Amino acid sequence: MRILVVHNYYKIPGGEDSVFENEVRLLKDRGNEVTEYTRHNRDMGIKELIFEAPFSRKTYRDIRQIIREKNIEIVHVHNDRFLISPSVFAAARDDGVPVVKTLHNFRLICINAMLTRGGKVCRECIEDGTVHILPALKYGCFRKSRILTYLNLRINRAAVKNRAYDGVKFIALTDFNRDIFVRSGLCTEEDIYLKPNFTFKPEITADTVEEKQDFLYLGRIDPLKGIEDILNEWTKLPESFVLKIAGSGEEGYEKELKQRFDRKNILFLGKLSHDTAMEELRASKAMLFTSRLYEGVPMTIIESFSLGTPVIGLDFGNGGSIISSIYSRKEPLLKDIHELSERIESFDEDLKKGLYEINEGNLASFLPDRNYNMLMEIYEKCLRS
Description:
Layout: E1 2-9, H1 15-29, E2 33-40, H2 46-51, H3 57-70, E3 74-79, H4 87-94, E4 99-103, E5 116-117, E6 120-121, H5 134-139, H6 146-161, E7 169-172, H7 175-184, E8 192-194, E9 215-218, H8 227-234, E10 243-246, H9 251-260, E11 266-270, H10 274-282, E12 286-289, H11 299-306, E13 311-313, H12 317-327, H13 340-345, H14 347-352, H15 360-363, H16 368-384
Parallel strand pairs: 1-2, 1-3, 3-4, 4-7, 7-8, 9-10, 9-12, 10-11, 12-13
Antiparallel strand pairs: 5-6
Helix pairs in contact: 3-4
């Protein structure tokens, strides 16, 4: 199949970049003719945000040219903010090529993309099945700035005015996300497909780990990721239970945590390379996932399971949904964060009893082979429709 895959890199690298690169690699490995169209927000200034982000003439021209020169059959958009812009959808439509967009976050219905405000879940902009803009302006939801919020909302309004998403099909990462998008009025159930992100199984070159030790938090050092909740629970545990924290965050906040939780059994490892992080993950008894965000498909969860390392997480949002689906039951999930210290103390016994047994069949949806089949089925449906 001849596929044009489109992605706009953010200034700060993130999970969406990895998903885009993984899917391009997967499609090429399976013999598809893949053309990539990318731009990078490091090249963006205020002029581009004002004049190009709502509708980029450059993107429009580029996409139409690629479609004709490469005889593209389908366009798959990952991220179009900010330099690519929604003009990519108009270009494909004007050349009669079907478009599918992966909804990596909630950006089309929530200006800060996370459905949160003030550290708590917020759905004020989509309360009645319609996407509103006034609450976002009122609170300055994009980077706590009303001006930046307004500039971002111009993109959404321009997309609606130009009917950018007419005929576009969407990919939701989870049932949870799919339901939210449909309820928001963004699309109908027929226009949105379900396919999670996937990961290539990490390649570990070190010797086999004979006995897993310690517990691991792997991710951004951020209050919304629940790191303080974990640390507070760890203070209740004997020093024989060691927690390793791999990741970095805002410098002042990270420094504060290190001072407040200066204990022998809490080790801050800093930001690790991906390979080193995978080594730590493989050698850990379990990874902890207690994010307060709905999340998308956190790749650390999939990577952990693919290495045979259990995940202990909260029954909340997509994180909880994915963890329970791979275990094929909800019992391993925490109903409340205050259960964590007790769960850590009983971990070895619970593991022997099979509480953290991984359902390999369910995990397969997050690995390349089955995920590729899911993606190709979506492409075929888009072409037929």
